[in-house]
Amino acid sequence: MKIFTAHQIYEADKSTIKKEQIKSDELMERAATQLFEWIHSRLRGTQVNIQLFCGIGNNGGDGMVLARKLQEHGYSIKVYVVNYSDKRSKDFLLNLERLKENKVWPDFINKESDLPQISPNDIVVDAIFGIGLNRAPDAWVGNLIQHINGSRAFVLSVDVPSGLPVDRNPWNKEYVIQSSYVLSFQLPKLVFFLPETGVYVNQWEIVDIGLNPDFIAKTDADFELIGRPEVLPMYRPRLKFSHKGTYGHSVIIGGSYGKIGAVQLATNACLSVGSGLVTAFVPKCGYDSLQTAVPEVMVLTGSREKGISEIEIPFEPTVVGIGVGIGLDGDTVSAFGNFLKKVNSPMVIDADGLNILSQNPEMLTDVPGLSVLTPHPKELQRLIGNWTSDFDKLEKAKAFASKYNIVLVIKGAHTITIYKGKGYVNTTGNPGMATAGSGDVLTGMIAGLMAQGYPSVEAAIFGVYLHGLAGDLGVSSKGYEALKASSLIENIGSAYSELFRQPEMEQKDNTQ
Ligand SMILES: NC(=O)C1=CN([C@@H]2O[C@H](COP(=O)(O)OP(=O)(O)OC[C@H]3O[C@@H](n4cnc5c(N)ncnc54)[C@H](OP(=O)(O)O)[C@@H]3O)[C@@H](O)[C@H]2O)[C@@H](O)CC1
Ligand SMILES: Nc1ncnc2c1ncn2[C@@H]1O[C@H](COP(=O)(O)OP(=O)(O)O)[C@@H](O)[C@H]1O
Ligand SMILES: [K+]
Protein backbone atom coordinates (compact mmCIF):
# COMPACT_ATOMS: atom_id res chain seq x y z
CA MET A 1 0.00 0.00 0.00
CA LYS A 2 1.37 3.40 -0.93
CA ILE A 3 2.28 5.92 1.72
CA PHE A 4 1.53 9.46 0.54
CA THR A 5 2.79 12.81 1.76
CA ALA A 6 0.25 15.36 3.04
CA HIS A 7 0.54 17.19 -0.28
CA GLN A 8 -0.26 14.01 -2.24
CA ILE A 9 -3.28 13.31 -0.02
CA TYR A 10 -4.66 16.79 -0.70
CA GLU A 11 -4.13 16.16 -4.42
CA ALA A 12 -5.96 12.81 -4.18
CA ASP A 13 -8.74 14.61 -2.38
CA LYS A 14 -9.04 17.23 -5.14
CA SER A 15 -8.91 14.69 -7.94
CA THR A 16 -11.69 12.65 -6.28
CA ILE A 17 -13.92 15.69 -5.94
CA LYS A 18 -13.31 16.57 -9.58
CA LYS A 19 -13.73 13.07 -10.95
CA GLU A 20 -16.89 12.25 -9.01
CA GLN A 21 -18.23 15.78 -9.40
CA ILE A 22 -19.09 15.94 -5.72
CA LYS A 23 -18.73 18.77 -3.26
CA SER A 24 -16.02 18.69 -0.62
CA ASP A 25 -18.57 18.42 2.18
CA GLU A 26 -19.92 15.25 0.57
CA LEU A 27 -16.46 13.71 0.84
CA MET A 28 -16.30 14.83 4.46
CA GLU A 29 -19.72 13.27 5.09
CA ARG A 30 -18.53 10.03 3.50
CA ALA A 31 -15.32 9.99 5.57
CA ALA A 32 -17.03 10.75 8.86
CA THR A 33 -19.81 8.25 8.17
CA GLN A 34 -17.14 5.58 8.00
CA LEU A 35 -15.84 6.74 11.37
CA PHE A 36 -19.31 6.61 12.81
CA GLU A 37 -19.92 3.11 11.48
CA TRP A 38 -16.65 1.91 12.95
CA ILE A 39 -17.66 3.19 16.39
CA HIS A 40 -21.29 2.13 16.14
CA SER A 41 -20.43 -1.43 15.12
CA ARG A 42 -18.34 -1.73 18.27
CA LEU A 43 -20.43 0.16 20.83
CA ARG A 44 -23.85 -0.92 19.51
CA GLY A 45 -25.56 1.82 21.47
CA THR A 46 -23.68 1.33 24.75
CA GLN A 47 -24.16 4.38 26.95
CA VAL A 48 -20.63 5.57 27.42
CA ASN A 49 -19.72 9.26 27.50
CA ILE A 50 -18.13 10.30 24.24
CA GLN A 51 -16.26 13.58 24.38
CA LEU A 52 -15.41 15.02 20.98
CA PHE A 53 -12.63 17.62 20.73
CA CYS A 54 -12.83 19.27 17.33
CA GLY A 55 -10.56 21.83 15.70
CA ILE A 56 -11.74 24.48 13.25
CA GLY A 57 -10.38 22.94 10.04
CA ASN A 58 -11.54 19.91 8.12
CA ASN A 59 -10.31 17.50 10.78
CA GLY A 60 -12.64 19.33 13.15
CA GLY A 61 -15.29 19.19 10.40
CA ASP A 62 -15.03 15.39 10.43
CA GLY A 63 -15.56 15.57 14.18
CA MET A 64 -18.70 17.70 13.70
CA VAL A 65 -20.22 15.20 11.27
CA LEU A 66 -19.34 12.32 13.58
CA ALA A 67 -20.95 14.14 16.53
CA ARG A 68 -24.15 14.64 14.54
CA LYS A 69 -24.35 10.98 13.59
CA LEU A 70 -23.64 9.80 17.13
CA GLN A 71 -26.34 12.11 18.46
CA GLU A 72 -28.84 10.92 15.85
CA HIS A 73 -28.23 7.35 17.08
CA GLY A 74 -28.80 8.21 20.71
CA TYR A 75 -25.24 8.28 22.00
CA SER A 76 -24.29 10.42 24.95
CA ILE A 77 -21.98 13.07 23.54
CA LYS A 78 -20.24 16.24 24.61
CA VAL A 79 -18.75 18.38 21.85
CA TYR A 80 -15.96 20.94 22.23
CA VAL A 81 -14.62 23.26 19.57
CA VAL A 82 -10.94 23.90 20.17
CA ASN A 83 -10.97 27.45 18.91
CA TYR A 84 -7.32 27.87 17.95
CA SER A 85 -7.83 30.12 14.93
CA ASP A 86 -10.34 32.48 13.32
CA LYS A 87 -9.72 30.86 9.95
CA ARG A 88 -12.44 28.24 10.14
CA SER A 89 -12.83 25.98 7.13
CA LYS A 90 -15.98 26.18 5.03
CA ASP A 91 -16.95 22.56 5.66
CA PHE A 92 -16.29 22.88 9.37
CA LEU A 93 -18.69 25.84 9.52
CA LEU A 94 -21.29 24.04 7.44
CA ASN A 95 -21.23 21.03 9.72
CA LEU A 96 -21.20 23.16 12.87
CA GLU A 97 -24.49 24.64 11.62
CA ARG A 98 -25.89 21.18 10.85
CA LEU A 99 -25.02 20.11 14.38
CA LYS A 100 -26.73 23.14 15.84
CA GLU A 101 -29.80 22.36 13.72
CA ASN A 102 -29.86 19.06 15.63
CA LYS A 103 -29.86 21.12 18.84
CA VAL A 104 -26.34 20.25 19.85
CA TRP A 105 -24.40 23.32 20.96
CA PRO A 106 -20.69 22.72 21.38
CA ASP A 107 -18.64 24.41 24.10
CA PHE A 108 -15.94 26.64 22.67
CA ILE A 109 -12.54 26.21 24.30
CA ASN A 110 -10.28 29.23 24.14
CA LYS A 111 -7.05 30.29 25.77
CA GLU A 112 -8.90 31.36 28.91
CA SER A 113 -11.20 28.33 29.24
CA ASP A 114 -10.97 25.82 32.08
CA LEU A 115 -9.97 22.34 31.02
CA PRO A 116 -12.98 20.01 30.83
CA GLN A 117 -13.30 16.99 33.09
CA ILE A 118 -12.45 13.71 31.38
CA SER A 119 -13.03 10.44 33.17
CA PRO A 120 -10.91 7.33 32.46
CA ASN A 121 -14.14 5.62 31.39
CA ASP A 122 -14.94 8.19 28.71
CA ILE A 123 -14.14 7.86 25.05
CA VAL A 124 -12.32 10.85 23.64
CA VAL A 125 -12.58 11.59 19.94
CA ASP A 126 -9.52 13.54 18.88
CA ALA A 127 -10.37 15.73 15.86
CA ILE A 128 -8.30 18.80 16.76
CA PHE A 129 -5.68 18.77 14.02
CA GLY A 130 -5.35 16.55 10.96
CA ILE A 131 -2.83 16.58 8.15
CA GLY A 132 -3.09 20.38 7.92
CA LEU A 133 -0.93 20.92 11.02
CA ASN A 134 1.94 23.14 9.91
CA ARG A 135 3.42 24.55 13.13
CA ALA A 136 3.53 23.88 16.84
CA PRO A 137 0.17 24.13 18.59
CA ASP A 138 -0.12 27.14 20.91
CA ALA A 139 0.71 26.44 24.54
CA TRP A 140 -2.93 26.43 25.66
CA VAL A 141 -3.82 23.86 22.95
CA GLY A 142 -0.75 21.90 24.01
CA ASN A 143 -2.00 21.96 27.60
CA LEU A 144 -5.35 20.59 26.46
CA ILE A 145 -3.54 17.83 24.57
CA GLN A 146 -1.55 16.97 27.71
CA HIS A 147 -4.76 17.02 29.72
CA ILE A 148 -6.34 14.49 27.32
CA ASN A 149 -3.18 12.34 27.46
CA GLY A 150 -3.29 12.38 31.24
CA SER A 151 -6.97 11.38 31.42
CA ARG A 152 -6.42 7.63 30.81
CA ALA A 153 -9.54 7.69 28.61
CA PHE A 154 -9.58 5.71 25.36
CA VAL A 155 -8.53 8.19 22.68
CA LEU A 156 -9.73 7.63 19.15
CA SER A 157 -7.90 9.92 16.72
CA VAL A 158 -9.41 11.03 13.44
CA ASP A 159 -6.88 10.58 10.60
CA VAL A 160 -3.77 11.29 12.71
CA PRO A 161 -3.00 11.96 16.38
CA SER A 162 -3.47 15.72 16.78
CA GLY A 163 -0.15 17.55 17.02
CA LEU A 164 1.67 14.95 14.93
CA PRO A 165 2.67 16.35 11.54
CA VAL A 166 2.74 13.69 8.82
CA ASP A 167 5.94 14.67 7.01
CA ARG A 168 8.30 15.69 9.80
CA ASN A 169 8.93 15.32 13.53
CA PRO A 170 6.71 17.30 15.93
CA TRP A 171 7.88 20.78 16.93
CA ASN A 172 7.00 20.01 20.52
CA LYS A 173 6.99 16.36 21.59
CA GLU A 174 4.74 17.11 24.59
CA TYR A 175 2.01 18.57 22.41
CA VAL A 176 1.00 15.41 20.59
CA ILE A 177 -2.02 13.24 21.34
CA GLN A 178 -1.15 9.77 22.55
CA SER A 179 -3.70 7.79 20.53
CA SER A 180 -5.19 4.54 21.63
CA TYR A 181 -6.49 4.00 18.11
CA VAL A 182 -6.11 5.99 14.91
CA LEU A 183 -8.65 5.72 12.11
CA SER A 184 -6.65 7.06 9.21
CA PHE A 185 -8.19 8.00 5.88
CA GLN A 186 -7.42 5.93 2.80
CA LEU A 187 -3.64 5.50 3.15
CA PRO A 188 -1.23 4.96 6.04
CA LYS A 189 1.05 7.82 7.14
CA LEU A 190 4.83 7.35 7.35
CA VAL A 191 5.04 8.78 10.88
CA PHE A 192 3.10 5.77 12.21
CA PHE A 193 6.10 3.54 11.48
CA LEU A 194 9.15 5.53 12.55
CA PRO A 195 10.69 5.03 15.99
CA GLU A 196 10.46 8.69 17.04
CA THR A 197 6.88 9.30 15.92
CA GLY A 198 5.30 5.82 15.92
CA VAL A 199 5.18 5.99 19.72
CA TYR A 200 2.10 8.24 19.55
CA VAL A 201 0.09 5.50 17.81
CA ASN A 202 -0.94 2.42 19.73
CA GLN A 203 -3.09 0.87 17.02
CA TRP A 204 -4.16 2.13 13.63
CA GLU A 205 -6.52 1.14 10.90
CA ILE A 206 -7.22 2.44 7.43
CA VAL A 207 -10.68 3.75 6.62
CA ASP A 208 -11.41 3.51 2.91
CA ILE A 209 -13.13 6.74 1.87
CA GLY A 210 -13.00 5.96 -1.83
CA LEU A 211 -10.35 8.47 -2.93
CA ASN A 212 -9.77 8.29 -6.69
CA PRO A 213 -8.08 4.90 -7.27
CA ASP A 214 -6.67 5.99 -10.65
CA PHE A 215 -4.94 8.93 -9.05
CA ILE A 216 -3.51 6.71 -6.31
CA ALA A 217 -2.33 4.13 -8.84
CA LYS A 218 -0.55 6.61 -11.08
CA THR A 219 1.07 8.71 -8.37
CA ASP A 220 4.57 7.61 -7.34
CA ALA A 221 5.12 7.33 -3.62
CA ASP A 222 8.50 7.49 -1.88
CA PHE A 223 7.39 4.87 0.62
CA GLU A 224 5.30 1.74 0.45
CA LEU A 225 3.82 -0.30 3.27
CA ILE A 226 4.59 -3.98 2.81
CA GLY A 227 1.87 -6.42 3.75
CA ARG A 228 0.82 -9.77 2.37
CA PRO A 229 -0.65 -8.38 -0.89
CA GLU A 230 2.72 -6.81 -1.67
CA VAL A 231 4.88 -9.87 -0.93
CA LEU A 232 2.70 -12.61 -2.41
CA PRO A 233 3.48 -11.69 -6.04
CA MET A 234 7.21 -11.86 -5.22
CA TYR A 235 6.99 -15.51 -4.15
CA ARG A 236 8.80 -17.89 -6.50
CA PRO A 237 7.19 -21.34 -6.49
CA ARG A 238 9.42 -24.39 -6.61
CA LEU A 239 9.38 -26.26 -9.89
CA LYS A 240 8.50 -29.93 -10.24
CA PHE A 241 11.65 -30.85 -12.20
CA SER A 242 14.00 -28.75 -10.15
CA HIS A 243 17.00 -30.02 -8.21
CA LYS A 244 19.17 -28.56 -5.49
CA GLY A 245 21.29 -26.81 -8.10
CA THR A 246 18.23 -24.88 -9.22
CA TYR A 247 18.06 -23.11 -5.89
CA GLY A 248 21.59 -21.82 -5.65
CA HIS A 249 24.65 -22.31 -3.51
CA SER A 250 24.95 -19.87 -0.62
CA VAL A 251 28.15 -19.27 1.29
CA ILE A 252 27.99 -17.83 4.78
CA ILE A 253 31.30 -16.40 5.97
CA GLY A 254 31.74 -15.46 9.59
CA GLY A 255 32.29 -16.62 13.12
CA SER A 256 35.15 -16.30 15.58
CA TYR A 257 35.99 -17.94 18.90
CA GLY A 258 32.82 -17.76 21.02
CA LYS A 259 30.67 -16.52 18.11
CA ILE A 260 30.23 -19.61 15.96
CA GLY A 261 26.54 -19.70 16.90
CA ALA A 262 25.93 -16.71 14.66
CA VAL A 263 27.02 -18.76 11.64
CA GLN A 264 25.00 -21.70 12.83
CA LEU A 265 21.87 -19.54 12.95
CA ALA A 266 22.53 -17.88 9.59
CA THR A 267 23.29 -21.11 7.73
CA ASN A 268 20.34 -22.91 9.27
CA ALA A 269 18.02 -20.02 8.32
CA CYS A 270 19.50 -19.97 4.81
CA LEU A 271 18.68 -23.66 4.36
CA SER A 272 15.26 -23.32 5.93
CA VAL A 273 14.26 -20.53 3.57
CA GLY A 274 15.10 -22.79 0.64
CA SER A 275 18.69 -22.34 -0.53
CA GLY A 276 19.65 -25.47 -2.51
CA LEU A 277 23.12 -25.78 -1.00
CA VAL A 278 24.76 -23.97 1.87
CA THR A 279 28.44 -23.80 2.73
CA ALA A 280 29.86 -22.12 5.82
CA PHE A 281 33.34 -20.61 5.93
CA VAL A 282 34.51 -20.35 9.56
CA PRO A 283 37.70 -20.48 11.62
CA LYS A 284 38.80 -23.97 12.63
CA CYS A 285 37.23 -23.74 16.08
CA GLY A 286 33.82 -23.75 14.43
CA TYR A 287 34.19 -26.95 12.47
CA ASP A 288 32.95 -29.60 14.91
CA SER A 289 30.06 -27.66 16.36
CA LEU A 290 28.75 -26.58 12.95
CA GLN A 291 28.95 -30.06 11.46
CA THR A 292 27.05 -31.37 14.46
CA ALA A 293 24.46 -28.64 14.79
CA VAL A 294 23.50 -28.28 11.13
CA PRO A 295 24.46 -31.48 9.31
CA GLU A 296 23.03 -30.26 5.99
CA VAL A 297 25.60 -27.48 5.83
CA MET A 298 29.05 -28.02 4.29
CA VAL A 299 31.89 -26.46 6.22
CA LEU A 300 35.12 -24.88 5.00
CA THR A 301 37.67 -23.53 7.45
CA GLY A 302 40.48 -21.02 7.25
CA SER A 303 43.98 -21.73 8.53
CA ARG A 304 43.53 -20.20 11.97
CA GLU A 305 41.89 -21.64 15.03
CA LYS A 306 40.03 -18.65 16.47
CA GLY A 307 39.44 -16.13 13.69
CA ILE A 308 39.33 -15.61 9.94
CA SER A 309 42.61 -14.39 8.42
CA GLU A 310 42.04 -15.28 4.76
CA ILE A 311 38.98 -16.17 2.71
CA GLU A 312 39.26 -18.75 -0.07
CA ILE A 313 36.11 -20.18 -1.61
CA PRO A 314 37.02 -22.84 -4.18
CA PHE A 315 33.89 -22.30 -6.32
CA GLU A 316 31.68 -19.43 -7.48
CA PRO A 317 28.86 -19.03 -4.95
CA THR A 318 25.44 -17.80 -6.04
CA VAL A 319 25.40 -15.45 -3.07
CA VAL A 320 27.66 -14.66 -0.13
CA GLY A 321 26.43 -13.74 3.35
CA ILE A 322 29.26 -12.25 5.35
CA GLY A 323 29.93 -10.66 8.71
CA VAL A 324 27.96 -12.50 11.39
CA GLY A 325 30.20 -13.12 14.39
CA ILE A 326 33.30 -12.37 12.31
CA GLY A 327 34.90 -9.86 14.74
CA LEU A 328 37.17 -6.91 14.04
CA ASP A 329 40.63 -8.46 14.32
CA GLY A 330 43.18 -6.73 12.05
CA ASP A 331 43.80 -9.85 9.95
CA THR A 332 40.07 -10.41 9.59
CA VAL A 333 39.66 -6.85 8.32
CA SER A 334 42.41 -7.44 5.71
CA ALA A 335 40.87 -10.75 4.69
CA PHE A 336 37.49 -9.06 4.32
CA GLY A 337 38.98 -6.26 2.19
CA ASN A 338 40.86 -8.71 -0.06
CA PHE A 339 37.79 -10.86 -0.47
CA LEU A 340 35.70 -7.86 -1.54
CA LYS A 341 38.19 -7.16 -4.32
CA LYS A 342 37.81 -10.60 -5.86
CA VAL A 343 34.17 -11.49 -5.20
CA ASN A 344 31.66 -11.23 -8.04
CA SER A 345 28.55 -12.61 -6.38
CA PRO A 346 26.08 -10.22 -4.74
CA MET A 347 26.47 -10.23 -0.99
CA VAL A 348 24.50 -9.84 2.19
CA ILE A 349 26.63 -7.94 4.67
CA ASP A 350 25.75 -7.81 8.36
CA ALA A 351 27.09 -7.16 11.85
CA ASP A 352 30.90 -6.79 12.03
CA GLY A 353 31.01 -6.92 8.24
CA LEU A 354 29.21 -3.56 8.38
CA ASN A 355 31.47 -2.28 11.13
CA ILE A 356 34.53 -3.13 9.02
CA LEU A 357 33.03 -1.09 6.19
CA SER A 358 32.34 1.84 8.54
CA GLN A 359 35.93 1.80 9.76
CA ASN A 360 37.30 1.38 6.22
CA PRO A 361 34.93 3.33 3.98
CA GLU A 362 37.27 2.97 0.98
CA MET A 363 36.16 -0.70 0.89
CA LEU A 364 32.59 0.36 0.08
CA THR A 365 33.43 0.88 -3.58
CA ASP A 366 34.42 -2.81 -3.79
CA VAL A 367 31.05 -4.04 -2.53
CA PRO A 368 29.37 -5.72 -5.52
CA GLY A 369 26.39 -3.78 -6.89
CA LEU A 370 22.96 -4.92 -5.67
CA SER A 371 24.40 -6.32 -2.46
CA VAL A 372 22.19 -6.09 0.63
CA LEU A 373 23.45 -4.39 3.80
CA THR A 374 21.43 -5.06 6.95
CA PRO A 375 22.36 -2.59 9.70
CA HIS A 376 20.57 -2.19 13.03
CA PRO A 377 20.36 1.50 14.08
CA LYS A 378 23.82 1.61 15.70
CA GLU A 379 25.48 0.00 12.69
CA LEU A 380 23.60 2.36 10.41
CA GLN A 381 24.86 5.36 12.33
CA ARG A 382 28.44 4.12 11.95
CA LEU A 383 27.85 3.75 8.22
CA ILE A 384 26.06 7.00 7.35
CA GLY A 385 26.87 9.27 10.32
CA ASN A 386 24.51 10.99 12.76
CA TRP A 387 21.05 12.16 11.85
CA THR A 388 18.86 14.87 13.31
CA SER A 389 15.53 13.00 12.96
CA ASP A 390 14.13 9.82 11.45
CA PHE A 391 13.30 11.81 8.31
CA ASP A 392 16.89 12.99 8.04
CA LYS A 393 18.04 9.39 8.62
CA LEU A 394 15.91 8.15 5.73
CA GLU A 395 17.24 10.83 3.37
CA LYS A 396 20.83 9.99 4.29
CA ALA A 397 20.14 6.27 3.95
CA LYS A 398 18.63 6.79 0.50
CA ALA A 399 21.65 8.81 -0.64
CA PHE A 400 24.03 6.17 0.73
CA ALA A 401 22.19 3.28 -0.95
CA SER A 402 22.08 5.11 -4.29
CA LYS A 403 25.75 6.11 -4.13
CA TYR A 404 26.88 2.49 -3.79
CA ASN A 405 24.00 0.91 -5.75
CA ILE A 406 23.07 -1.31 -2.84
CA VAL A 407 19.94 -2.33 -0.95
CA LEU A 408 19.93 -1.02 2.60
CA VAL A 409 17.79 -2.83 5.18
CA ILE A 410 17.32 -0.56 8.21
CA LYS A 411 16.32 -2.99 10.94
CA GLY A 412 13.88 -2.05 13.67
CA ALA A 413 10.30 -2.53 14.83
CA HIS A 414 9.25 -1.55 11.30
CA THR A 415 12.26 -2.50 9.21
CA ILE A 416 12.60 -0.24 6.17
CA THR A 417 14.29 -1.51 3.01
CA ILE A 418 15.81 1.28 0.94
CA TYR A 419 16.54 0.93 -2.75
CA LYS A 420 16.79 3.47 -5.57
CA GLY A 421 15.30 6.31 -3.57
CA LYS A 422 12.31 4.32 -2.33
CA GLY A 423 11.55 2.89 1.10
CA TYR A 424 9.58 -0.31 1.78
CA VAL A 425 8.14 -0.37 5.29
CA ASN A 426 7.62 -3.79 6.86
CA THR A 427 4.52 -4.66 8.89
CA THR A 428 5.39 -8.02 10.48
CA GLY A 429 7.46 -8.71 13.58
CA ASN A 430 7.19 -7.98 17.28
CA PRO A 431 9.29 -7.05 20.32
CA GLY A 432 9.90 -10.74 21.08
CA MET A 433 12.39 -10.55 18.22
CA ALA A 434 14.57 -8.13 20.15
CA THR A 435 16.78 -11.06 21.13
CA ALA A 436 20.32 -12.22 20.40
CA GLY A 437 20.80 -13.71 16.97
CA SER A 438 17.56 -12.67 15.31
CA GLY A 439 19.56 -10.49 12.91
CA ASP A 440 21.80 -13.45 12.04
CA VAL A 441 18.67 -15.37 11.06
CA LEU A 442 17.61 -12.52 8.78
CA THR A 443 21.01 -12.47 7.07
CA GLY A 444 20.71 -16.17 6.31
CA MET A 445 17.15 -15.78 5.06
CA ILE A 446 17.92 -12.93 2.66
CA ALA A 447 20.97 -14.79 1.34
CA GLY A 448 18.92 -17.96 0.89
CA LEU A 449 16.28 -16.09 -1.10
CA MET A 450 18.90 -14.48 -3.34
CA ALA A 451 20.38 -17.94 -3.93
CA GLN A 452 16.98 -19.04 -5.24
CA GLY A 453 16.89 -16.23 -7.76
CA TYR A 454 14.96 -13.53 -5.93
CA PRO A 455 16.35 -10.16 -7.10
CA SER A 456 18.21 -8.47 -4.21
CA VAL A 457 15.56 -5.91 -3.39
CA GLU A 458 12.78 -8.51 -3.45
CA ALA A 459 14.89 -10.90 -1.37
CA ALA A 460 15.28 -8.13 1.20
CA ILE A 461 11.60 -7.08 1.26
CA PHE A 462 10.28 -10.65 1.16
CA GLY A 463 12.90 -11.90 3.63
CA VAL A 464 12.18 -9.16 6.15
CA TYR A 465 8.45 -9.84 5.88
CA LEU A 466 8.85 -13.61 6.26
CA HIS A 467 11.30 -13.19 9.16
CA GLY A 468 8.79 -10.99 11.00
CA LEU A 469 5.97 -13.39 10.22
CA ALA A 470 8.04 -16.27 11.64
CA GLY A 471 8.46 -14.12 14.75
CA ASP A 472 4.72 -13.46 14.98
CA LEU A 473 3.95 -17.17 14.67
CA GLY A 474 6.66 -17.97 17.21
CA VAL A 475 5.16 -15.56 19.71
CA SER A 476 1.72 -17.16 19.44
CA SER A 477 3.10 -20.37 20.98
CA LYS A 478 6.05 -19.12 23.04
CA GLY A 479 5.19 -15.58 24.12
CA TYR A 480 7.47 -12.58 23.71
CA GLU A 481 10.11 -13.27 26.32
CA ALA A 482 10.84 -16.90 25.48
CA LEU A 483 11.13 -16.34 21.75
CA LYS A 484 14.69 -17.09 20.64
CA ALA A 485 16.41 -16.67 17.30
CA SER A 486 16.27 -20.44 16.78
CA SER A 487 12.47 -20.32 17.25
CA LEU A 488 12.37 -17.96 14.27
CA ILE A 489 14.07 -20.59 12.13
CA GLU A 490 11.65 -23.28 13.34
CA ASN A 491 8.79 -21.08 12.15
CA ILE A 492 10.03 -20.24 8.65
CA GLY A 493 8.05 -23.14 7.16
CA SER A 494 4.85 -22.07 8.91
CA ALA A 495 5.48 -18.51 7.77
CA TYR A 496 5.52 -19.67 4.14
CA SER A 497 2.24 -21.55 4.75
CA GLU A 498 0.75 -18.51 6.46
CA LEU A 499 1.37 -16.48 3.31
CA PHE A 500 -1.10 -18.68 1.47
CA ARG A 501 -3.71 -19.00 4.20
CA GLN A 502 -7.21 -18.04 3.12
CA PRO A 503 -7.90 -14.33 3.70
CA GLU A 504 -11.27 -14.84 5.43
CA MET A 505 -9.43 -16.26 8.44
CA GLU A 506 -7.19 -13.21 8.59
CA GLN A 507 -7.33 -11.11 11.74
CA LYS A 508 -6.49 -7.48 11.19
CA ASP A 509 -4.24 -6.28 13.99
CA ASN A 510 -1.96 -3.31 13.66
CA THR A 511 -0.74 -3.25 17.23
CA GLN A 512 2.55 -1.37 17.22
N1 LIG B 1 -7.97 14.52 1.95
C1 LIG B 1 -8.73 13.64 2.56
O1 LIG B 1 -8.47 12.50 2.47
C2 LIG B 1 -9.81 14.10 3.40
C3 LIG B 1 -9.51 14.86 4.51
N2 LIG B 1 -10.39 15.15 5.44
C4 LIG B 1 -9.96 15.76 6.69
O2 LIG B 1 -9.30 16.98 6.49
C5 LIG B 1 -8.18 17.06 7.34
C6 LIG B 1 -7.28 18.14 6.92
O3 LIG B 1 -8.00 19.33 7.08
P1 LIG B 1 -7.36 20.78 6.94
O4 LIG B 1 -6.55 20.86 5.72
O5 LIG B 1 -8.44 21.74 7.07
O6 LIG B 1 -6.34 20.85 8.18
P2 LIG B 1 -6.52 20.59 9.74
O7 LIG B 1 -5.52 19.56 10.11
O8 LIG B 1 -7.92 20.36 10.14
O9 LIG B 1 -6.02 21.97 10.36
C7 LIG B 1 -6.80 23.14 10.16
C8 LIG B 1 -5.98 24.39 9.96
O10 LIG B 1 -5.30 24.77 11.13
C9 LIG B 1 -4.22 25.65 10.80
N3 LIG B 1 -3.11 25.23 11.62
C10 LIG B 1 -2.14 24.34 11.32
N4 LIG B 1 -1.33 24.18 12.35
C11 LIG B 1 -1.79 24.99 13.32
C12 LIG B 1 -1.37 25.26 14.65
N5 LIG B 1 -0.31 24.65 15.17
N6 LIG B 1 -2.08 26.13 15.37
C13 LIG B 1 -3.17 26.74 14.87
N7 LIG B 1 -3.61 26.52 13.61
C14 LIG B 1 -2.94 25.66 12.87
C15 LIG B 1 -3.99 25.50 9.33
O11 LIG B 1 -4.39 26.66 8.67
P3 LIG B 1 -3.47 27.97 8.57
O12 LIG B 1 -3.67 28.72 9.86
O13 LIG B 1 -2.05 27.54 8.40
O14 LIG B 1 -4.00 28.72 7.40
C16 LIG B 1 -4.88 24.31 8.95
O15 LIG B 1 -5.38 24.40 7.66
C17 LIG B 1 -7.66 15.66 7.29
O16 LIG B 1 -6.73 15.35 8.29
C18 LIG B 1 -8.95 14.89 7.42
O17 LIG B 1 -9.32 14.75 8.77
C19 LIG B 1 -11.76 14.64 5.32
O18 LIG B 1 -12.65 15.53 5.78
C20 LIG B 1 -12.18 14.32 3.91
C21 LIG B 1 -11.17 13.72 3.05
N1 LIG C 1 10.67 -4.46 18.68
C1 LIG C 1 10.84 -5.15 17.55
N2 LIG C 1 9.80 -5.36 16.72
C2 LIG C 1 9.97 -6.04 15.57
N3 LIG C 1 11.15 -6.56 15.16
C3 LIG C 1 12.21 -6.37 15.94
C4 LIG C 1 12.12 -5.67 17.16
N4 LIG C 1 13.35 -5.63 17.71
C5 LIG C 1 14.17 -6.29 16.87
N5 LIG C 1 13.49 -6.74 15.80
C6 LIG C 1 14.06 -7.45 14.64
O1 LIG C 1 15.03 -8.40 15.10
C7 LIG C 1 16.23 -8.31 14.33
C8 LIG C 1 17.38 -7.86 15.25
O2 LIG C 1 18.57 -7.77 14.52
P1 LIG C 1 19.95 -7.40 15.20
O3 LIG C 1 19.81 -6.19 16.04
O4 LIG C 1 21.00 -7.41 14.15
O5 LIG C 1 20.16 -8.64 16.20
P2 LIG C 1 21.41 -9.58 16.43
O6 LIG C 1 22.64 -8.73 16.23
O7 LIG C 1 21.29 -10.04 17.83
O8 LIG C 1 21.31 -10.69 15.48
C9 LIG C 1 15.94 -7.33 13.21
O9 LIG C 1 15.49 -8.02 12.07
C10 LIG C 1 14.82 -6.46 13.78
O10 LIG C 1 14.01 -5.91 12.79
K1 LIG D 1 -6.80 14.24 14.77
UniProtKB/TrEMBL annotation:
InterPro entries: Carbohydrate_kinase_pred_CS, CARKD, Nnr, Ribokinase-like, YjeF_N_dom, YjeF_N_dom_sf. Residues 227-499 form the YjeF C-terminal domain. CDD domains: YXKO-related (cd01171). Its cofactor is K(+); Mg(2+). Residues 9-217 form the YjeF N-terminal domain. GO terms for molecular function: ADP-dependent NAD(P)H-hydrate dehydratase activity; ATP binding; metal ion binding; NAD(P)HX epimerase activity. Catalyzes the dehydration of the S-form of NAD(P)HX at the expense of ADP, which is converted to AMP. Together with NAD(P)HX epimerase, which catalyzes the epimerization of the S- and R-forms, the enzyme allows the repair of both epimers of NAD(P)HX, a damaged form of NAD(P)H that is a result of enzymatic or heat-dependent hydration. This is Bifunctional NAD(P)H-hydrate repair enzyme. It comes from Allomuricauda ruestringensis (strain DSM 13258 / CIP 107369 / LMG 19739 / B1) (Muricauda ruestringensis). The gene is nnrE.
